[in-house]
Design brief:
The chain has about 300 residues and is mostly beta strands. The protein is built from 1 helix and 29 strands. The longest helix is centred in the N-terminal third of the chain and has 11 residues. The radius of gyration is 18 Å and the shape is globular.
Length: about 300
């Protein structure tokens, strides 16, 4: 854990700001997705996947076809995508020319792909709800399907990295529940001590999770242990009631990107309740791996990336 703390301290106490690296002449529209892959990161922008090395430098890019509910992920075999076709999920490697390799198929009758993607140097995960209410997920580096509970009536589900584990979150009636999975999922599901407001995002460390929820005046962040016990709840400084929010686990902290009344910001939250500012600029997508936080965003339609 010491290397994570040291890396994040160096990340926060910046002497200078890195200049963004752009790939000129290419426009990108819509939300970005970032995945951790073997040699760095991959960014999905529109229908193109861009390679980003461990230093934050943009490499080449390839175009993929239009895919429903697509997620970019890193498998042991390379950059891959997970997407929905009808009532099934497909997983395939993205080849050097953008074509999709051999596909693996998952799910019985997929009703909804859950929010978020678990992605770090340990494993990826994508979750979904079956039509019978069962929550399932596929995870790597070798894809396999695991079942988690079978309660009905879920109205929300999400997946996030949690250190070497994967966190599954769902709302079942008035309850928000959490389970941690590695090779197998825990037999005991935790009830999360948050209220019934909609969840804007969730991210986890190896011992806690942070939830973002909209309030009447802005956005609240709640830090809970994996047991579900609430540690603290605070408003995000300068967030508005309609702020967009993105969260990612970053070592023993949570990095939170969100819109403010002015320039969007990224803050680091920790278990003691600190909300430290670490970046200011256009609302980015975030990923954390090997002690590094990748910030990816668009500026005038152009993809730019930086390591913080």
């Amino acid at each position: 854990m010491l290397w994570r703390q040291t890396a994040f301290a160096a990340l926060v106490v910046l002497v200078s700001i890195l200049w963004p690296r752009g790939q000129g002449g290419v426009e990108h529209r819509g939300p970005l997705q970032v995945a951790v892959v073997r040699d760095g990161f991959a960014v999905l922008a529109g229908h193109r996947i861009h390679a980003v090395d461990a230093g934050g430098e943009l490499g080449g890019s390839v175009a993929i076809g239009e895919l429903a509910d697509v997620r970019v992920v890193g498998l042991g075999t390379g950059t891959s995508v997970v997407w929905r076709t009808g009532v099934k999920l497909q997983v395939a490697r993205v080849e050097a020319d953008g074509r999709l390799g051999p596909r693996e198929q998952f799910g019985q009758r997929v009703e909804r792909v859950c929010e978020g993607t678990a992605t770090n140097e340990h494993r990826f995960g994508v979750a979904w709800l079956e039509s019978d209410g069962t929550l399932r997920f596929v995870h790597g580096p070798i894809a396999q399907e695991l079942s988690v509970a079978s309660a009905r009536g879920r109205t929300y589900c999400a997946i996030a990295s949690a250190g070497r584990q994967i966190a599954l979150v769902w709302r079942d009636g008035g309850r928000v529940e959490l389970n941690l999975c590695g090779k197998h999922c825990k037999s005991r599901v935790a009830r999360v001590a948050i209220d019934n407001r909609p969840i804007l995002g969730v991210a986890c460390t190896d011992d806690a999770c942070a939830f973002a929820q909209r309030s009447a005046t802005g956005v609240d962040v709640t830090w809970v242990k994996h047991s579900g016990k609430q540690v603290w709840q605070k408003p995000l400084p300068d967030a508005t009631p309609d702020s967009a929010v993105a969260l990612v686990g970053a070592g023993d902290r949570i990095a939170i990107a969100y819109e403010t009344g002015g320039e969007p910001a990224v803050r680091a939250a920790d278990r003691s309740g600190n909300l430290s500012a670490i970046w200011q600029g256009r609302l980015p997508a975030l990923a954390w791996a090997h002690g590094k936080l990748l910030v990816a965003r668009t500026v005038d339609g152009e993809l730019v990336t930086a390591i913080r």
